[in-house]
Amino acid sequence: MDFSYVAYGKDKKLVKGKLSATNQTAAAKLLNYGGYQVLSIKPISSFINLERLRNIFTQVNPKEVTMFSRQLALLLESGTDIVASLELLQGQVTNRTLRRVIGEVVADIRGGSSLSAALKKHPRVFPQMYSRAIAAGERGGNLEIVLRQMAEFIERRILTEKRIKNALTYPVIVAIVAVIVVALMVAFVLPTFTELYSSFGAEQPLATTIFLSISNWFIDYGLYVLIGLVVVVIAAVVYIKTPAGSYQWSKISLRLPVIGRILILSELSRACRTISLLFRVGLPIPEVLTMASQGTSNKVVSGALDEVRRELIRGQGLSKPMSGNPVFLPLMVQMAGVGEGTGNLDQTLTTVAESYEMEADDKTTAAVGLIQPIMTIAIGLVVAFIALSLVSAMYSMYGEISK
After folding, report:
1. How many Å apart are CA 375 and CA 174, to the nearest integer?
2. Within this chain, do residues 160 and 148 fall inside the same structural domain, yes or no?
3. Each residue's pLDDT expressed in tens, for the chain with a length of 403 residues
4. DSSP label of 19
């Protein structure tokens, strides 16, 4: 938020200006820290705050958070204090939103706040798990290590999402191109061909009759079908946004053939890495499970982790309640039990996460490899049917011409 101020400088001259801070108290402390004696400070209000709108629509790339974490860890290890480190990073950051957030974090720390509490105020940039891990690092005196671990965690998540997107890019592009080509043929080629065919009065072959009937049906009712599909999609999205709908969709997605296995492996690997990281930095297991539950997008997995947390609080341990829930795969249950017995829960769950990630990658690659030939065959059949319809009709017209 922006403030206008009037103050005396060190040379006793009157100074007027503007500055950004989280609140009026923080703004006054910033000025006092700079050696100014504040006379008045007021928030700047405007009907349209362009800076605020820009911050809303400008996202902070997770890669920038990763780089910020690594650089901050390096500066702290070199002996630079936290405020000086953040100010140095603020001057190097190119993203306006992240630069503003770092400035507000600096202001909060100068006002007496801890780094984790200051980061917690910006959940769109630093998720709750990030701020909780930083808080554990502050308590344990290993903040630099925690920052590096969070950077590695975010990097692995980015890499996993990138692999999935890259794997699905080719099939999606092929599907879009195929739909566009067929739509252009139906919209432009077919009407011209139909007029030419009708002018000769030739007998229609069966393939041509079927093709023309399907095309005419889509021309007559295609708009209504499109509107109906849009309504159904919107209704489905609205329902999925509700708690009951979100749970049902999560349940259905995990039961899908091929895709369901990939989804459960991805969710469990993410949960294992979250538990491993937060356990390593020193958070208590119940709080770790809460963070892991909040970090998953699948409501079934989230509910299963919540149930494990409740049983853990009752004294049932970690692996025993997992074994009674089919959501948790056998390897995760077994390795959780080994980790509990040896005290190396973070290492065993990291091993599980790596195993599940490898299996998910293999199954994703296999699924994409299966999708590509299926799409090629489907597109080939459609093109062959269209070509057969047109060619058979042309031969029929030639027969009429030769009579």
Report:
1. 8
2. no
3. 677 778 777 777 777 777 766 677 777 777 777 677 777 887 776 544 554 555 555 678 888 999 999 999 999 988 888 989 998 998 888 888 888 889 888 888 888 888 998 998 888 889 888 888 888 888 878 888 889 888 888 888 888 778 777 777 777 787 788 778 777 777 676 667 666 666 666 566 777 777 777 777 877 787 888 899 999 999 999 998 898 898 999 999 888 888 889 889 988 998 898 888 888 888 888 888 988 888 888 899 999 999 999 999 988 888 899 998 899 999 999 999 999 888 888 899 999 998 998 898 888 888 877 877 887 888 788 778 777 777 776 776 666 565 5
4. E
Residue 54 domain flag: no
Q: Is residue 69 part of a domain?
A: yes
Number of domains making up the chain = 3
Single residue among 153, 187, 219 that ends a domain in this structure: 153
What angle do the packed helices 345-402 and 206-241 form, to 10 degrees? 150
CA angle 271, 273, 275 (to 5 degrees): 65
The conformational region for residue 201 under phi > 0 = left, psi -120 to 50 = alpha, else beta, is left
| Same domain, residue pair 127 and 243 | no
Within this chain, do residues 377 and 275 fall inside the same structural domain, yes or no? yes
- Phi, psi of 52, rounded to the nearest 5 degrees: -65, -40
- The residue segments making up the domain with residue 386 are 154-403
The residue assigned the tokens 């995990």 is 254
Answer yes or no: do 258 and 291 share one domain.
yes
- Residue 127 sits in a domain of what CATH number? 1.20.81.30
Asked whether the beta carbons of 146 and 136 are under 8 A apart, the reply is yes
Domain final residue, candidates 153, 174, 202: 153
247 in Cβ contact with 298 (< 8 Å): no
- Joined together, the tokens standing for residue 143 give 């903040």
Residue 51 domain flag: no
Question: Looking at the whole model, is its pTM more than 0.70?
Answer: no
In a domain, 366, yes or no: yes
Taking the C-alpha atoms of residue 157 and residue 154, their distance in angstroms, rounded to an integer, is: 5
Strand (E) positions, 316-391?
Answer: none
> Which 3-state string (H, E, C) describes 12-81?
CCEEEEEEECCCHHHHHHHHHHCCCEEEEEEECCCCCCHHHHHHHHCCCCHHHHHHHHHHHHHHHHCCCC
> 241 and 199, same structural domain?
yes
Residues 172 and 143 in one domain: no
